[in-house]
Write a structure and sequence with these properties.
By secondary structure, the chain is an all-beta fold. The chain has a single domain, classed as Jelly Rolls. The strands form 2 sheets. Strands 2, 3, 5, 6 and 8 form a 5-stranded antiparallel sheet that branches. Strands 1-9-4-7 form a 4-stranded antiparallel sheet, with no helix packed on it. The chain is built from no helices and 9 strands. It has strands at 7-16, 22-25, 29-30, 42-47, 58-66, 73-82, 92-97, 105-112, 123-129.
């Protein structure tokens, strides 16, 4: 984790969550114009309160990268949130440090476990932080 907090709006993407038993990718963040090496960056992944998120079910955030903005692979940098009995999931965020080998384009794959509830009205945000 990282204590980085400075966000650049040009390097931020937002998207509603996919349905339960589904996954999708956020929009693309292009690292080429950041002026920083990937190992000097972190990706902040934020989610709102998810009151419909079912107890014990998970949403997995998987940082994907690409050299050509079309073929994406997992970087191995992930974070999982789990529904809590009676509460869903509180709003939160996490900073994930990018690996030095991260390629030019990044997206976040969000996978909602089957039976995870209806969270499709909730928007998740991903932003580079310096």
């Amino acid at each position: 984790m990282s204590d980085r907090a400075i966000k650049d709006a040009r390097l931020t993407v937002s998207k509603v969550f996919p349905a339960a038993a589904a996954n999708d990718n956020t929009g693309t963040i292009d690292l080429v114009n950041t002026g920083y090496k990937p190992e000097g960056m972190a990706l902040n992944i934020a989610w709102p309160s998810l009151p419909n998120f079912v107890d014990g079910k998970t949403i997995i955030f998987d940082v994907m990268d690409s050299a050509d903005d079309s073929s994406y692979l997992s970087t191995g940098v992930t974070h999982t949130i789990t529904g809590i009995t009676g509460n869903g999931q509180a709003a939160g965020s996490v900073n994930l440090r990018l690996k030095p080998t991260t390629r030019r384009y990044i997206q976040v794959k969000r996978t909602v476990e089957s039976g995870g509830g209806t969270n499709t009205a909730s928007t998740n945000t991903c932003a580079l932080v310096f």
